Each structure stands twice: as C-alpha cells, then as structure tokens.
Automatic annotation (TrEMBL):
Main location: membrane
Classification via NCBIfam families: ComEC_N-term, ComEC_Rec2
Segments forming domain Metallo-beta-lactamase: 511-694
Superkingdom of this protein's organism: Bacteria
Keywords: Cell membrane, Membrane, Transmembrane, Transmembrane helix
CDD domains (alphabetical): ComA-like_MBL-fold
Origin species: Salinisphaera hydrothermalis (strain C41B8)
Name under which the protein is recorded: DNA internalization-related competence protein ComEC/Rec2
Length: 755
C-alpha cells in the first residue's frame, strides 16, 4: 500500500500530470473543462491522495482551456482558400531560399500568427518589419499517412493559426518593432561577411544564434548518421553547459570576496541569468524554453537554500513545462530531454566506483536506453553514436563557450580581432568535420527500424534499462526477452498478408498520386507523388517512411504512370532511399504496354493501357498513363493514372471486358475530363478512391464527377479529407476502406476526418 506522504510526492504528481496532458493530446475532440470540476470538488474533503488528484485536475483543466482558446483563434475551415488583406509585423527569422522567402507574421487585426510563403522576387524582410499584404490563407493542415511527419501537429506546437502565400503587397510605412529576434537578425547580418564563404557557417550560427538554415543537406545527413543532431540544436545540453560554467566561475570568484557565505546563491542567480541570455540569443525556441525551465528548477532550489534533490527538481521542471506549454508532450524533444536527464540522475545515485565507470554508464545509457525513443520518433538510430558522443559531448564543454566568445567578439569588433577569432574558430570546426563525415560513411553507422507499436516501445525501454544497469544476470536476461518484440518487428495491429491476397494503400500526397500495393512477399509502388523545387518531396517524406513503417523497404517494382511532376517527382528519392528491383513506366527503359503481365504470390498484374500505337500518338501526356489491373480470387483493383475521356474510351474498347474491378482509382484526380460514363459502366466498381489536394486550385474532384459516382451509388473516398486510404478485402469482392485520419484522429487536426 502506498504511504500517504508518497501520494503527495512531487515526482508522482509530475508523472501523473504529464500522463494526463498526454492523454488529452491523444483525444479526437476536446471535452469541456467542466468535466474536471466533479473530481476537483471531492478534493474539498480530506482523504489520501487529495493533493495528487487536485493538482492533476487543475493541470488538465488548464490544458483544456488553453487548447480551446488556441482552437478558437485558428483560421476556420470556412475561410480556407480565401484571399484576404492582412497587416502586421514579421516575427521570428525569415527563411530565404532561391525560390521563395518563408516568414511568420502576427496579424494586427486578428492576433493570429501566420506562416506565409512569398514566391518570386520577395523583398528583404527582417523581424519587426511592418508588412501589408493580400494573402491566400489556409487553415493549418498537412498530409496524414502511416509513418509520415505530422505537419499539422508541428504547426500546432509552433502556435501557427494559418498558413498561406502572398498574392500582392503594398508599402507599409510604420516603423519596425523592436524584438530580440530583430537583434538576432542584425547579429546574423553582421557575421555574414565573416562566415559567408566558410563551410561551417551553419554550425557556428546554430551553436550561437539557434539559426540552422545554412546547415547543408549533406551536413544534416552526417549529423543524423552519427547521432549528433542534438549537438546543433540549442536545448538542454547547451543551456546546461553555459549555466554550469557560469555557476562554477561565479562561485569560485564569490568565494574570494566578502560575500563568500552567499557564494552558491549568487552563482545560481548568475547561472540562471546566463541561461536566460543564451536562450534569448538562440531565439527562445520551444526546446530552449524547456531547457531554461529545467535549469530554473535546479537553480531555484539553490537560491532558496533547500536541498530538494535532483529528482524532485526534475519533477518540478516537468510540471512547469506542461503548464507553460502543454503541447510539448507531442514533441519528441520533450521525451528525449527528460528521459536523458532522468537517466543521468538515476545513474548518479545508482553507480558507485571510479569516475570512468560512471561516465561509461552515463554515455551508454544516454544512447542505448534512448534508442527506442529515437527509433519511435524518427525511425533511425546510429550505431556509432555511443563512441562519437563520448568524445563530442565533453568536447562541447569547450567548443560551445569558444564559439559564443568568438561570436560576441565578432559582433563587437567584426573588422578586427573579433572577426579574426571567429574565422579561426570556424576553421577549427572545419578541420575536425571530415572525421565525422568518415564515421558517417561507415556502412553500419546508422540503421532504420520502425518500432511496431507502443507496447513494443514500452517493452524495449524497460528491457534496455535492465540491460544497462548493474543488476543480477537473471534480471538482465529478462531484459533480452523484453527487447525481442521491437527487434523482431512484432506488429500486433498489422496482420500478415496471406496468399493469394493483396492490399492497396493510396497515400495522402496532396495534389498528386502515390499508391503502394502489397502481396504476401512483394511490393509495388504505383506513382511516386510530387516533388517541388522549394524542397517538398513526397517520395522522401511520405512514400519511403510508409515503406519503412510497413517493413517493405524492398520495392519489387516502381511503376510511374506518366511524366507529370505530381506523379513522377518523388521517384528519384524512392530509388535512392529504398531497394528498387525494377523501374517501369514513364522515363524508364521499360515503358508500359498493354499485354504486359506478371504474377506475385498468386496475385495477377495486367497492364491494360496504352497500346503501342496509342503510346506513340500520345507521347508523355495524360493519355499515355499506364493503366494496371490487379486481381486475385475475390479481389480486384484498377489503377488508372491520369487518363482522360478519349483514353478511357480506348481502354474500354481494347480491354475486352476485363475492366470490372472492386476498387477504382479515380482517373486524373477527379477532373471533369475523366471518369466518363463508359468507364464507370465497364469497371462497375464497388468503391472509388481519389487522390487530391486539400482545397486544390482546380477544385478536384469536380462536383460533376462526384455526381456521376453518386448517381451509380459508388462510395467515393478522398485523400484530401480522409488522409491515406487503406484497402483490404475481409470478404470476397467486399472491399473495406479505412481512413487514416479516422484511425488517428487528434483534436488539432484539419481537415476533419470524412469522405
């Protein structure tokens, strides 16, 4: 039985509060805060655990109230796609690229935070600048796919109330508004002449000012492969280093003054001031805020001269973080940072002996015990990370202060000694970087592995914990057993596909098309989704993560229906990041031709269109699209690409009655020039799937097309509102379509699940 004093322990209260907020952030809809009034009313009476229940109820109520306020401030769906005048000031640091400038602004009229793109020749924008624009706004939304990045959740965490792009602008003569970000921008401009031609520019700016836009893709790849991305994200490690160094230095100085009796208190105040200053210099981003709150909890105990213990300080920090920013619980950094600090605290009390023994447990634990969380959030981990971090984390205690000192010196005297010192520091980083690149190129440096579920994650965390701590060998053996579900890829929610069946997944790639067909042992990718020069690549960001999640990174065939960018754009990324055995269709040495056939695991694949003559006439247009029919006993699907009415008529004429299918991929995203009556009559589908972008500019699927399907009582499922569409056959010729948004609904997501 738990003692009464244990129920009021801040550590238990913090854990319960974090779990309560996490539960709220898993809900499909927000309940009323009034639901917590009843348990809170019971706390008026004395009983064991009253403090625990009261605090958790108040934290839950605060979370619900804050979430409702933020939801109310978002751009409503009814206003999505409208061009409206907006005026306000730029907030944060704009990101300038070759094709667009992306920036955030605070609207004066609505108080909404807008994330906008300015394409073409955008003016130079600085934080605090007044802007007066006409912008096409959208409610925050993103693609919804298994294994994909939750862009909508990221926008929610950043407090973005609407996204969009600039259509027109007018001069705004209001004076710039002062902000910390404006000072950071001016600092970047002052450092630019010194760092512009330096390969380590991005790293120097990241370590000092929290700006990572000049870190190249190749450098990011090296950091990910070596497990060192955390070293360039100003968070707990960096704040802790600066605060710790200041604490030690000020305490050493204070002990030599008449204020020696207050040395620890003075040092704690100085360290906290330094942590706040560094956080402000770095932009006060969410990870930095968490780090400052954690540091404040530790130093507050010193200031008030109460030895509350490291574990309780961490608990106070966790409680403060979820009160300050409840959405932190859906950020990977929250769990990684608190798990890392918690591990260090636990090992410090558990492991005795020489300093090197503690250091070994610290480093092994940080990497090995956190590996399941890294795999859960990112699907990638590094095998060389323990060795590299064992060197670089201690080195950061020297590198980070040196970079900061050089940057401050360069800001004061850029043309003199300050600029020279910063250039030398950047050159020093460039000298050691090739060693990191060499480690990243090792074939086993990093690996991808998707944990199959929350149960496997929990088992792996406990199992690795037992393996990493000094416990009896029999208990460590239990740790091996607990790790096995994650290692073997046990997937309780993903049953195997038996011969001769197949499954179809139409991924949500926006305005484009990418589908995956899986048989018992083979995988077909039909179209690869779009890729844009601004950086979005559906192949890398949606298709490959889905394949990893399904454990199907080996692609037996990549078939591209035709050469439009919204179908072929992601193909190079899939070829580079997956094991593609064969590529066919557009832009390949094996174009589609009617009559091509193959069989996998008892499932037949037949190319029905185009014929050789039609392909020669159509070239690489929509009319050249590959049409593929997949059929097995009791199941069939017709994949159509972007064929239009003339191609549909030719398809029906040449198919000799072989078009009847349970599932039809709606041609050309539901354009008015497709889905003709002759095709619908010949295919006679039971369900139809359309891949279209949310509120796309062409209005796909067109109302006239939707009406054609409704007239024939054919249910129409749209990725724009449903997210990824997953099709299987629980009974012969009875396809079942699952909407990914329905399976993983969250209250902040837009658009809402449906149709």
């Amino acid at each position: 039985m738990i003692a009464r004093h244990a129920l009021s322990d801040i550590r238990l209260i913090a854990v319960a509060s974090v779990l309560a907020v996490t539960l709220i952030y898993q809900l499909p809809a927000l309940p009323s805060p009034a639901w917590v009034l009843l348990p809170l009313a019971f706390c008026l009476f004395r009983f064991p655990g009253r403090t625990l229940i009261a605090v958790v109820c108040m934290v839950a109520a605060a979370t619900l109230v804050q979430a409702r306020i933020e939801m109310a401030n978002r751009l409503p769906v009814a206003a999505d796609g409208k061009i409206v005048p907006v005026s306000g000031a730029v907030v944060g640091l704009p990101e300038t690229g070759p094709y667009r400038t992306r920036f955030e602004m605070m609207s004066d009229a609505t108080g909404r935070r807008l994330r906008l793109s300015w394409y073409g020749d955008a003016p130079t924008l600085a934080p605090g600048d007044c802007v007066q624009l006409k912008a096409k706004l959208s409610t925050p939304h993103g693609s919804a796919n298994p294994g994909g990045f939750d862009y909508t959740g990221w926008l929610w965490r950043q407090g973005i109330d609407a996204t969009g792009y600039v259509r027109d602008s007018q001069p705004c003569r209001a004076p710039p508004r002062w902000s910390i970000d404006r000072l950071r921008y001016q600092a970047l401009q002052r450092l630019a002449p010194i760092l512009a031609q330096r390969p380590m520019r991005g790293l120097v700016e990241a370590l000092s000012l929290g700006v990572r836009q000049h870190i190249t893709d190749a450098q990011w790849a090296t950091l990910r492969a070596t497990g060192t991305t955390h070293l360039v994200a100003i968070s707990g490690l960096h704040i802790g280093l600066i605060a710790g160094l200041l604490f030690a230095l000020v305490q050493w100085l204070a002990l030599r003054t008449p204020a020696a009796r207050q040395a620890r208190r003075v040092a704690a105040i100085a360290a906290m001031a330094g942590a706040l200053g560094y956080a402000a210099l770095a932009g006060w981003a969410l990870p930095t805020q968490r780090a400052v709150i954690m540091a404040a909890a530790f130093f507050a105990a010193i200031v008030v001269e109460r030895d509350i213990g490291a574990g309780r300080s961490l608990a106070w920090a966790a409680l403060a973080v979820v009160l300050w920013h409840p959405a932190s619980v859906i950020a990977p950094g929250f769990w990684l940072s608190f798990a890392a600090v918690g591990w260090l605290i636990w090992i410090a009390t558990l492991v005795d002996g020489a300093w090197w023994r503690k250091a070994l447990y610290f480093q092994l634990g940080l990497v090995v015990v956190l590996m399941p969380l890294t795999l859960w959030f990112f699907g990638q981990a590094s095998l060389v990370a323990p060795l590299i971090n064992a060197v670089l984390i201690p080195a950061a205690g020297v590198v980070v202060p040196c970079v900061l000192a050089a940057v401050l010196a360069a800001l004061i005297w850029p043309a003199g000694a300050g600029g020279w010192l910063l250039a030398k520091v950047a050159a020093g980083l460039a000298l050691v970087w090739p060693g990191l690149e060499w480690a990243a190129q090792w074939s086993l440096a990093s690996f991808h592995h998707v944990l199959p579920g929350a149960v496997a994650l929990g088992c792996a965390m406990v199992g690795l914990l037992l393996l990493a701590v000094p416990v009896p060998i029999r208990i460590r053996a239990l740790g091996v057993v607990l790790v096995l579900p994650a290692v073997l890829g046990w997937r309780p929610g993903e049953t195997t596909i038996a011969r001769p069946h197949f499954r179809v997944t139409m991924l949500d790639v926006g305005q484009g098309l990418a589908s995956v067909v899986r048989t018992a042992h083979h995988t077909l990718v039909f179209d690869a989704g779009p890729a844009y020069r601004t950086g979005f690549d559906a192949g890398a960001m949606i298709v490959v993560p889905y394949l990893r999640r399904m454990g199907r990174l080996h692609v037996d065939r990549l078939m591209i229906s035709h050469g439009d960018m919204d179908h072929i754009g992601g193909a190079p990324a899939i070829m580079a990041q997956a094991e593609v055995a064969r590529r066919t269709g557009a832009k390949s040495g094996a174009p589609c031709r009617a009559g091509q056939h193959w069989r996998w695991d008892g499932v037949d694949f037949d190319v029905l269109y185009p014929t050789a003559g039609e392909a020669a006439q159509a070239g690489d247009s929509n009319e050249h699209s590959c049409v593929l029919r997949i059929h097995a006993p009791g199941a069939s699907a017709l994949l159509t690409g972007d064929i239009e009415a003339p191609g549909e008529r030719a398809l029906v004429a040449n198919a000799n009655g072989r078009l009847a299918s349970d599932v039809l991929m709606v041609p050309h995203h539901g354009s008015a020039t497709s889905s003709s009556a002759v095709l619908l009559g010949a295919a006679a589908p039971k369900v139809a799937l359309v891949s279209a972008g949310w509120h796309n500019r062409w209005g796909f699927p067109r109302p006239s097309v939707v009406a054609r399907y409704r007239a024939r009582d054919i249910p129409l499922f749209n990725t724009a509102t449903a997210g990824a569409l997953l099709v299987d056959w629980p009974a012969p010729h009875q396809p079942r379509v699952a909407r990914w948004r329905d399976r993983h609904r969250r209250f902040w997501q837009q658009p809402r699940p449906g149709g």
